UniProtKB/TrEMBL annotation:
Residues 1-385 form the Aminoacyl-transfer RNA synthetases class-II family profile domain. InterPro entries: aa-tRNA-synth_II, aa-tRNA-synth_II/BPL/LPL, Anticodon-bd, Anticodon-bd_dom_sf, His-tRNA-ligase, HisRS-like_core, HisRS/HisZ, HisRS_anticodon. This is Histidine--tRNA ligase. It comes from Paracoccus broussonetiae subsp. drimophilus. Homodimer. The gene is hisS.
Length: 494
């Protein structure tokens, strides 16, 4: 090597910022949960759909600020120049599962049934600044109906969401689906005399802060402004006090039951036709959910659900987990939202120029999995395979025969492939794999036609808890005929 040629530094073995690796139980438990949800979606007549992880930026609807900085929330790159000159397409990793659905619905509109009901599960990527609990890659789980303007489609999504949460393991009483309607809010804006554009957008952003600042805070933000917790002045929207009244009436209209809430909303929207239409849709959803057996202990009309109203065009819904957990400082808090969705009738229109109604829901996979673990329904160590130890290198075929018999019986099993000289290292390996059983057969056992079956779980328990007399009375290792290997392992595994 030439003296002036520098040695290349080794790459750092570290996960990129905003990303993470998933091991063992993380992968298997997520799959188990998603399989349960998919079973419910399939039972409701929804079909699975897997779209490409890469879409054109144009299809995603993300418009780049300039060709030198393709990072408007997505991971994007430009294809090489096309033959004959001209710039190539901008491509990007999908940032959600809804935009690809809109593209599919437009591209295959002549082939797909209408309405088209699909569910999709998979990773999405967002080019955002990472932070605690905020990752650039995460999983989503969506279900959508494209092509139906009927409010029954919205009601079905809500009912299906309740069934999916319960089948995943969330018990009744531990969740609540809250439902609102963008049309009702449109009626409120009409009653306020607020026109579309910036004034309406400012009102929407203010309403979205209701859960943080409360009724008094929203009123201040709609009118003259308020001071935040740090003492900084926050400018108000500038409405007159009487203009803010319909918003407050809307946000505080939740009654003792759905019927009372609907009556309050009818009064809040006044003579607005759009508002009245929204209230009537909520009434229909309430009736249909009741017919499905989804009572008000599982789904309610709640005007305080205002997130995403700038995107949705009709009913909106959010699934909230109501049980308490302890935060990192030991304080009690509610778990919060794990799913949300609503009607979005304008997304497919971008491709076709024609109105195509759609409604759907997205479940936060990581949050729901964390909730199941918080309830003790998941999160135990993933049980490893039975380990067939190696006492004699020349008898590897015999050891693989044992493993094959166990696998044929539906039992996870592997043969130890490390250096077999130190038998203690083989048992340490089995412990590290969280193996429940180790199989041992040396030359003497082989000659006698027997195997030693070591119950590693019982052995660890005896070592930790039992007296010497109990240890002798309950040996964790037993000798059985070679022909009884599978039966003995099944007995131990229960």
């Amino acid at each position: 090597m030439a003296k002036d040629q520098k040695k290349q530094p080794r790459p750092k073995a570290e996960t990129p910022k905003g990303f993470r690796d998933y091991f063992g139980a993380d992968v298997t438990e997520r799959k188990q949960m998603l399989d349960r949800i998919a079973e419910i979606y399939h039972r409701h007549g929804f079909e699975p759909l897997e779209t490409s992880a890469v879409e054109t930026v144009e299809a995603l609807g993300k418009f780049l600020p300039d060709v030198d900085r393709p990072n408007a929330g997505v991971f994007a790159w430009q294809e090489a120049e096309v033959p004959g000159g001209g710039a190539g397409d901008w491509l990007a990793l999908r940032y959600d599962l809804t935009a690809p659905l809109a593209r599919v619905a437009a591209q295959f509109r002549n082939d797909l049934p209408s309405p088209y009901r699909r569910y999709a599960m998979g990773p999405v990527w967002r080019n955002e600044k990472p932070g605690p609990g905020r990752f650039r890659q995460f999983y989503q789980c969506d279900a959508d109906t494209v092509g139906s303007a009927s409010v029954a489609a919205d009601a079905e999504i809500c009912g299906m969401l309740a069934a999916a949460l319960e089948h995943a393991g969330i018990q009744r009483g531990d969740y609540l689906i809250r439902i609102n309607n963008r049309k009702v809010l449109n009626g409120i804006l009409e009653a306020m005399g607020v026109e579309a554009g910036k004034p309406a957008d400012d009102v929407l952003r203010t309403i979205d802060k209701f859960d943080k600042v409360g009724e008094a805070g929203v009123r201040q933000l709609l009118t003259t402004g308020r001071k935040d917790e740090s003492g900084a002045e926050i400018e108000g929207v500038g409405l007159r006090p009487e203009q803010a009244d319909p918003v407050i009436a809307f946000l505080t209209s939740k009654g003792a039951d759905n019927a009372a809430t609907l009556d309050n909303l009818r009064a809040a929207v006044g003579g607005s036709e759009a508002g009245a239409e929204g209230v009537e849709e909520l009434a229909q959803i309430s009736d249909m959910l009741a017919a499905m057996g989804v009572g008000e202990d599982r789904a309610i009309i709640d005007p305080s659900i205002v997130r995403g109203l700038g995107y949705y065009t009709g009913p909106v819904f959010e699934a909230e987990l109501t049980f308490e957990i302890l935060d990192e400082k030991g304080r009690k808090r509610q778990f919060g939202s794990v799913a949300g969705g609503g009607r979005y009738d304008g997304l497919v229109e971008r491709f076709t120029g024609q109105k195509v109604p759609a409604t759907g829901v997205s479940i936060g996979v990581d949050r729901l999995l964390a909730a199941l673990r918080a309830k003790g329904l998941m999160g135990g160590e993933d049980e490893g395979p039975v380990v067939v130890t190696v006492m004699d290198r020349d008898r590897m075929a015999d050891y693989y025969a044992m493993a094959s018999e166990l696998r044929a019986a539906g039992i996870r099993a592997e043969v130890y492939l490390g250096n077999p000289k130190n038998f203690g290292n083989q048992l340490k390996y089995a412990d590290k794999r969280n193996s429940p059983v180790a199989i041992i057969q040396g030359g003497d056992e082989a000659a006698r036609g027997v195997v030693q079956v070591k119950d590693l779980i019982l052995g660890a328990k005896i070592a930790a808890e039992a007296s010497h007399e109990e240890w002798k009375a309950q040996p964790a290792q037993t000798e059985v005929p070679r022909t009884d290997l599978v039966a003995e392992v099944r007995r131990i595994l229960g």
